Amino acid sequence: MGLASLTGPAFAREPKPVAVRELHVVTSGGFTAAFEALAKKYERDTGVHIVTEHGPSMGDTPQAIPNRLARHEDADVVILARSGLDKLAQAGTVTSGTVTDLGLSKIAVAVKAGAPAPDISTPDAVRATLVNAKSVAWSDSASGVYIQSVMLDKLGIADQVRPKGRMIPATPVGRIVAQGEAEIGFQQLSELKPVQGIRIVGLLPDSLQKVTPFSAGVVAYSPHQAEAKALIAYLSSPKAYPIIRDSGLEPASQKAKP
Questions:
Q1: Inter-axis angle of helices 29-46 and 225-235, to 10 degrees?
Q2: N or C: which end of the chain has fewer CB within 10 A?
Q3: What pTM does this model have?
Q4: Residues of the chain with pLDDT > 90: what percent?
Q5: Strand arrangement, sheet containing 77-81
Q6: In whole angstroms, what is the distance from residue 171 CA to residue 239 CA?
C-alpha cells in the first residue's frame, strides 16, 4: 500500500473527538450543599458536565474566590456572598448584568456533639454564653467578619471575647468545633448542616442576625457566557427552591437588577 493511500479520503474521514460540554463553577461554602445537589440534576437534564471548585467569598487564602479569579483559574460561574460578588462586578471581573441572588443565609451556632446546648434564645443569653465560653470560632468570610467586627461590639463584649476567638480561614468552622478546638462555633446554617460530629444549637436571635444573600455571576473572561447564564437561570428558578431550602437556605425571591 502506497503512502498516498494512507493520506487519502478514507483516512481523512476518521471522526474527530467531540468536545466535552462542561462548565467550571467556583462556589463558597454557604451554597455548596445546595449546589452539589442542583449540579447533579442539571447534568442529568442537560448533559452539561459541571466541574466544581470551592473557596471562601473573601479573605487572604489562595482558595478565596477573588484570588482564584485574579489568577484566571478556569471559571465560568462564581457563587459567593453578595457583598463579595458586587466587588467583583464593580471591578469588571464578573460580567455586568449577570449578578443573581440565589439564596438567603442565616448564622447558626454549634457545639460539639454530646455537649450541652448553650442558651442563645435572646441577645442577653448570647452575651452570657460568649462571655462564659472558653473558646469561640467564626469564619473568615461574611458571617465571621460580621461577628468579629459588628456583633461583639453590639453586645458590648468585644474586649472579652475577641482574645479567645479564632477566625478560621477556608476550613469549615463546624469541623473545628467537632475536633474540640473550639467550644462554640458560629457560621452560616447551610455550612454547618453537612458537618458530622457537631450539634447545631439554632439560629442567632433576629435582633443579632445577619442575613447574607448568596449570589451567582458569570465570570467576565469565561468563553461560555450563554451557557453560564443558562446555568444561573436554572439555579434561580422555582425548580431549585426545594433543594435550596433543604440545604438550610431560603430561596431568594428577587433577582438582582442589571
A1: 110
A2: N
A3: 0.81
A4: 83
A5: 49-54, 22-27, 77-81, 212-218, 100-105, 250-251
A6: 30
